[in-house]
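About this split. The held-out portion is used to measure sequence recovery: a designer receives only the structure tokens and must propose an amino acid at every position. Recovery is the fraction of positions where the proposal matches the reference. Here is one held-out target exactly as it appears in the evaluation file.
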């Protein structure tokens, strides 16, 4: 299968009822087991989880994760200053994550909310993660970001090994602004999320919430472009991000095995998708954290 090693698994639906288009709630543990078995069979590597994803880490820890690159994230500190106690909390929660995951060490630890690094004392979180890396319990450290301004601010504080960021046919902000290229020049591993914009890009137009009315013509143009290029919306959305040379891993969240098998097939299509004229620069429509639905 084409570039299948670039396809990673997001696990938020395995611990929380997440996603605009999620109809089924939390994925059952036995279904997670089946998906992980299929992923390992195809050589899929990256598994992205977080301490904030409900029971996701515990569900994962009931399975063999040896051949997978497991990445988890820090708690959310949501404070105007980072204290020594919060740096200790980061370390404590990380060790709890290892226990839940039944792992002695993992591939990556990311700051879940980049703004936690950007307040006074943020460097204490970097120091705590660096110490964990030096002890050999985590191989790579990094950050999850929402926009290019956060990328620029983080790079002034430290050079992450991994940056996870949103990118899709509609949300091309960090591609067009040059941040992806800058990260790659710095030697950073780039992981992409929100490829389907929480399922918005896959919804029939009749089901799209009224909130998106201002960009309805753009969404219609997107569906028309996929059809004109002979691709399903899933194939078009996946192949667009897959074929960006700066991208190392494309994270997808799936709710069941059939969905995952289809995702593997769709990720492997030979065609590339041309997403010219589909970029939306309004964060209120491409950043799910800002959606008012």
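Reference sequence for scoring:
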């Amino acid at each position: 299968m084409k570039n299948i090693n670039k396809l990673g698994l997001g696990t938020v639906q395995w611990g929380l009822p997440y996603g605009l288009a999620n109809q089924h709630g939390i994925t059952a543990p036995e279904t997670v087991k089946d998906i992980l078995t299929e992923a390992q069979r195809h050589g899929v590597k990256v598994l992205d989880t977080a301490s904030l994803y409900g029971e996701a880490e515990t569900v994962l820890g009931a399975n063999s994760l040896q051949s997978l690159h497991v990445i988890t994230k820090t708690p959310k500190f949501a404070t105007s200053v980072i204290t020594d106690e919060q740096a200790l909390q980061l370390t404590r929660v990380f060790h709890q994550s290892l226990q839940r995951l039944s792992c002695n060490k993992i591939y990556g630890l990311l700051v879940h909310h980049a703004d936690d690094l950007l307040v006074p004392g943020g460097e204490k979180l970097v120091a705590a993660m660096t110490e964990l890396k030096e002890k050999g319990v985590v191989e790579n450290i990094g950050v999850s970001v929402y926009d290019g301004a956060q990328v620029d601010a983080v790079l002034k504080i430290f050079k992450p090994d991994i940056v996870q960021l949103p990118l899709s046919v509609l949300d091309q902000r960090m591609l067009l602004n040059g941040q992806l290229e800058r990260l790659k020049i710095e030697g950073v591993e780039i992981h992409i999320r929100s490829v389907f914009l929480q399922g918005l890009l896959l919804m029939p137009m009749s089901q799209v919430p009224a909130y998106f009315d201002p960009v309805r013509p753009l969404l219609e143009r997107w569906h028309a472009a996929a059809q004109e290029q002979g691709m399903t919306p899933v194939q078009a959305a996946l192949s667009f991000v897959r074929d960006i040379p700066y991208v190392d891993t494309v994270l997808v969240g799936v709710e069941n095995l059939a969905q995952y098998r289809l995702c593997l097939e769709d990720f492997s299509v030979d065609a590339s998708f041309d997403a010219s004229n589909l970029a939306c620069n309004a964060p209120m429509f491409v950043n799910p954290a800002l959606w008012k639905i």
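Annotator remark: Strands lie at 7-10, 46-48, 69-73, 106-111, 138-144, 162-166, 189-193, 249-253.
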